[in-house]
Amino acid sequence: MEGTTGFGHTRWATHGAPSRENAHPFLDCQGTIALAHNGIIENHSSLRAELEAKGHKLTSQTDTETVVHMVEDAYEGNLEAALRSVLPQIQGAYAFALMHASEEGKLVVARKDSPLVVGLGTEENLFASDVHALLRETSRILYLMDGELAVITPTDVDVYAPDGSLVKREPEVVSWTVEDSEKGGFAHFMLKEIFEQPGVIHSTLLGRVSDLESDDLLRGGTSHVKLVACGTSFHAALAGKYIMEELAGVPASAELASEYRYTRASGEKPLVVLVTQSGETADTIAAAREARKRGCRTLAITNYLGCTIAREAEDVLYTRAGLEIGVAATKTFTAELMGLYLLALRFGVDTGHLTADEARKWTDELRALPRAVQSVLDSAGEIEKLAREYSNSRSMFFLGRNINYPISLEGALKMKEISYIHAEGYPAGELKHGPLALLTEETPVVALVPRDHTYEKMWGNIGEVSARGSPVIAIAYEGDDEMEKYVDHLLHVPWVKPVYSPVVNVVALQLLAYYTARERGCSIDKPRHLAKSVTVE
Ligand code: M6R
To answer: In the chain, what are the domains?
Structure first.
C-alpha cells in the first residue's frame, strides 16, 4: 500500500472467531475512521445495542468495533477530542490506535490496562504494544501511562493526561539493539535464547551478589512471602517457594495470578512477589492491584524497564535476560530463578537464617551456574537424538519432586506449547493416585533425579513407571551412572547444589522440547493460538 501513515494489528481473539470480518482495523459507517484495539471492551453488548438502535451497521462479532462507531458519533472535526469524549464510557482494557481520512498524517493512540509505547524516530514517529517492534527504527521510547492519550505525527508526539492537560515526559533510551532482535545464525529465536542462558545468568547476577544488604522488605510484621504469577513465570514462582524456604527460612506459597484475586483476603499481610517477564500480563497486574488493596507490600521481578508492573509494585528487581522473542519463555525463566535466588539470599541474611559467610558460599555456587548451563548446552546433540526417537509420541509425562516439581511442570509446558504433544508435569509421588492409569509403552516419562533428599523416592517412582512398560528418560547428575541399568536413557547434567538443580534441569528440558518440535515441523517461535504477552484477563 502507498502512503506515509498507517497501523496494523495482529489480533488475539477474545470475541468472535479469527476471520476476515473480525480482523482489525475496523471502520465507521462512513469508512473515514479506522481503529485497532488491543484489550477487551467489557460493556460491549450494551454499547452495541445502543449503537444499533441509532442505526449504526456493525459488521463483526468483536467487542472492538463498537468503539469506532462511538467515535464516529462524537466526531466534530478533531479525532483526539472525539476519542477523549468516548473513553469514559468504555469499561475494560484497551490500547487504541485511530486515524481519520481528513486528518492526514495524524495518529491518535490511548491506553488503559493494555501496553502501548511510542518510539521517537528521525522524521518519523511510531508506536507499538511492545518495544521489540520499534528497535529497528529507534531506541528512544516514550512509555504511555494508564489513561493517557497521544497524538502522533511524523514530527511531533503530544501526550495528554486524562483531563486533557499536556504531559511533559522525556523519552527513555533502551539499550537493546537490533542484533538482539535477530536470530544470529540460529534456526529459531527459541534456540538462540536457550543458548544465551549462561550470559543471562551472569548478567543477572552481575554487581548484585556482593550486595546482600536489604531494606525492610521482610520486616514490619511480614510473616511470609506469597509469589504470584502466570504460566512459565508461575513455575518460577513455585520454585521460588522452595527457594525461599530453603535459603531464607521464610514460609512461602505460590499462587496463580488469575486465581489470587478470587481468594478471600485473610488477616495476614504477606510480602507479595509478582513474577512476570513482560511486566504486562493482565492477570498479574490485576493481582498486584489486589495485593495492594489488601494492604500487602508488593515487589515485582520483571525483565522490562518501564513496564506496567514496575509502576504498580512498590519495589522492583529487574532480571537482565535481554529481549526474548520466542513465545516460549526460556531465558527469562532462568533469569527469574536467578532473581528469586538473589532475593532469598537477601532475606536469609535479613532474617538471620544465614550468616554473611554462609550467604557468600551460596553466592559463590550461584556464580558457577553459567559454566554448568554451558555444559548442558554442549550436550545438545545427545538431546536432539533423543528427541528424534520420541517425536511421534502422543503423550508424555514429566516427573519431579520438591524443587524439581515446578521444573517438571515447566518441562511439560514447553513440550506442549511448541510440539503440540500432550504433556503433563507431575509431582512424582502423585502418579500412583490416578495418572498411572494413562501410562503405556508409548508414553515416555522424563524423570528429574538430582541427588537430594528425594533421590531414593524418585528411584521408587521410576520403578513404578518402568513396571508399566513406559520408556524412562532420567536427568541426573554426572557420575550418577548406576541408574543407567534401570532407565531407557540417562542424560547427565553437571553437579550443582540441589537447590540450584532447576537451572540445569530446565535447560535440558527446553532443548528436548525444542528438538521435538523441530522434528515435528512445528512453528516454534510462534506456536498456534498463543501470544508473547497476554494482556487480557
Ligand atoms: O510475561 P509473563 O512472564 O507474565 O508471562 C506469563 C505467561 O503468559 C508466560 O510465561 C507463558 O506461559 C510462556 N510464554 C510460556 O512459555
So the answer is: 26-173 (3.60.20.10), 183-367 (3.40.50.10490), 373-537 (3.40.50.10490)
